Amino acid sequence: MFYREAGQFKANYQADAAIFPIRQDRMAIAAILVVAFIVVPLFATPYAFTGILIPFLIFALAALGLNILTGYCGQLSLGTAAFMAVGAFASYNFMLRIPEMPILLAFVGGGVVAALVGILFGLPSLRIRGFYLAVATLAAQFFILWFLTKVGWVTNYSTSGVITAQKIVILGYEFDTPAAKYLLVLSIVAVMALAAKNMARGNAGRSWMAVRDMDLAAEVIGIRLMRAKLLAFAVSSFYCGIAGALFAYAFLGTVEPEAYSLDLSFRILFMVIIGGVGTVLGSFLGSAFVALLPVLLSVSVRFLDTSLGLHIPESAISNLELMIFGGLIIFFLIVEPHGLARLWQIAKEKLRLWPFPH
Amino acid sequence: MSFFFEVLIGGLLSGVMYSLVALGFVLIYKASGVFNFAQGAMVFFAALTYVGLLEHGLSPWTAVPATLAVMVVLGLAIERIVLRPLVNQPQITLFMATIGLSFFIEGLAQIMWGANVRGLELGLQDEPMEWLSNATGMNVSKFDVAAAGVAAILVTSLALFFSRTRIGRALRAVADDHQAALAVGIPLQHIWAIVWAVAGFVALVAGLLWGARNGVQFALTFVALKALPVLILGGFESIPGAIVGGLIIGATEKLAEVYLGPFVGGGIEGWFPYVLALVFLLIRPEGLFGEKIIRRI
Fold first, then answer.
1. B11, B257 in Cβ contact below 8 A?
2. What's the distance, CA B138 to chain centroid?
3. What range defines the domain where residue B187 resides?
4. Which of residues 216-255 of B touch A (CB under 8 A)?
5. Are the CB atoms for A106 and A250 separated by under 8 Å?
6. Does A139 touch chain B (CB under 8 A)?
7. Cβ atoms within 10 Å of B125's Cβ, excluding its own
8. Has the ipTM of the complex gone over 0.85?
9. Across the strands, what pairs with A23?
10. Contact with chain B for residue A135, Cβ under 8 A
11. Which residue does chain A place closest to B279, by CA atoms?
12. B115 to chain A: which residues are within 8 Å by CB?
């Protein structure tokens, strides 16, 4: 009833090749963009920007990167945070060492460096697969973080290891308020999400999916495995690198290796799994879930604490949050192993049929 | 030269400690295809429970069986609550579930017993064996040797359990082929329950030894990360692989830290085993003792 594609004819090739071929989808996307770009900045508080919206968008970008690698190409990676760190540090060094460097170009440069590092650590994927590869990507995680802390040149010989990120200035305008940073991050994320959506249905995305479903069969039908896998590693690391640079510049304000720990890698993997493997939408839903969950948990635990007079000690609260987080992940995997994006599929199905049963 | 051997022996003995943790992974992976990331959390949980019970006034002789009982119950509960509903899901989903599980267990352990760092006394001193250092000039820790002994006993008994008992044979049958095992009447779910209980037991042994070594603290959960390169080197499905892999990783890690570390600024223990295992995998993708991968369309 509400989600009917009947009567929407594709009369030319352009319409057939549109990213969002269904009118309702186009309207929904337009509505979301209007809300995100206009309504949210009007009403959100500075805390909502810095505490929820900016990390949500940045993590969604990183999750998108990992989703390209794990969801579309089927190569499980546990080194996402390390590629983010490469992006952040490379951007920092571009800004530091090249005078008059435009910051957007530095971000892109950071992404490119991350992509090169990603290709390097993607090479083993040509020989090994599955969990062996996942553990091998841990090598990237540990080696890169070690490299960033040990090699002084990268951190410009900073003694503390924590570097203040340069200011974000584009064409003379300084992005220093939370709302400005939010809009910057949102624009970058929107453009890159669109690019990912487009890539996923093109030649690259289809060869990735063929490799994911069965790499031997993909090879037999003439997909070059090496090219497809390394391209996936490169694109994924590019996305992660940009996310890492944004994480340092627009969220933390500092560039430091400790921010890109193994824990962050796992968190991003959670976002991909909970959101939905192999969907662009899922990266956003998963990121929203993982970003909002701790906030909701601490609010609700504090609510219980004050309203019921249960005096839970501070340490127990953090452990309780850990337990609930772990428990919810298991719960979600059991109830909906295909992720939140699948729930949206089901909802669309219901909307199409309502009010009839079939 | 004696310094070289000292480092080598120290490395081999610490490698045995890695093998202990890796064993827990292998047991579960072999029987159910689950890459159980929560093994490290289980090690932490076991050590913390043991220390907590001691603090409540139990003697070590009652605390060990009590902790064992707790670990077995934990293993059974994991199998029943987490993994049974996830049967037939892709491996990555199961893996994610065990990561969630490790968060849950870490939180649970610290709520039950508190988060402060505690010592664990097994009556073994971490000091050099005098007769050996007098005779050869090498310092080899008594504790390490005892730990290696425990590991040897554990591996031998597991090997006997797997090859000589009825349950052990059923376990191997399940590991070989789930469906064929079901077809000949092996109760799959009992077997999985038993495997998780055994994994709980292995986690207890590893937890006691690692806890005595490094103190019972949150960092014990990172022990799992030490065991992963051992796993990929030895192969996920192989118990001998876990042992040999542990020895290789332990020895090369210590040697690299001593001889290579000073040139690159030290601290390479964190990633060297991974890179070593990675290079090894490039030559032999299924690990040292892993099953030969045959791929068909």
1. no
2. 28
3. 2-283
4. 225, 228-229, 231-232, 236
5. no
6. yes
7. 11
8. no
9. none
10. yes
11. A124
12. 315, 319
Kindly state whether A220 is in contact with chain B, defined as any CB-CB distance less than 8 angstroms: yes
Domain covering A46-353: architecture = Orthogonal Bundle (1.10)
Cα three-residue angle B76-B192-B198, rounded to 5 degrees? 65
Alpha carbons A224 and A11: distance in angstroms, whole number: 34
* A104 token code pair: 């957007």
Domain count of the fold of chain B: 1
Domain for residue B290, yes or no? no
- For B158-168, how does the pLDDT look when each residue is reduced to its tens digit (9 = 90+)? 888 887 888 88
Boundaries of every domain in chain A: 46-353
Cβ atoms < 10 Å from Cβ of B7 = 17
Hey, are the CB atoms on B92 and A273 less than 8 Å from each other?
A: yes
**pLDDT tens digits, one per residue of A18-47:** 888 888 888 888 999 998 888 888 888 888
Specify the DSSP class assigned to residue A123: G
Domain containing residue B67: CATH number:
1.10.3470
Interface of B with A in 9-38 (CB under 8 A): 35
Q: Give the pLDDT band of residue B134 (cuts 50, 70, 90).
A: low
- β-strand partners of A163: A255
* C-alpha closest to that of A259 among A127, A165, A355, A139: A165
B295 inside domain: no
Chain A residues within an 8 Å CB radius of B90: 337
Residue B220 DSSP code: G
Answer whether A323 sits within 8 Å of B108, measured CB to CB.
yes
| Contact criterion met (CB below 8 Å) for B182 and B83 | no
Q: Give the tens place of pLDDT for each residue, B220-255.
A: 788 788 888 888 888 887 788 888 888 888 888 888
Cβ separation B92–A277 shorter than 8 A: yes
CB distance from A315 to chain B under 8 Å? yes
**Chain A CB within 8 Å of residue B264 CB:** yes
Runs of H (alpha helix) within chain A? 13-16, 23-34, 40-43, 46-47, 54-66, 80-97, 103-122, 131-150, 178-200, 203-213, 215-220, 225-246, 262-275, 280-308, 314-335, 340-353
> Given A135, A273, A319, which is nearest B107 (Cβ)?
A319
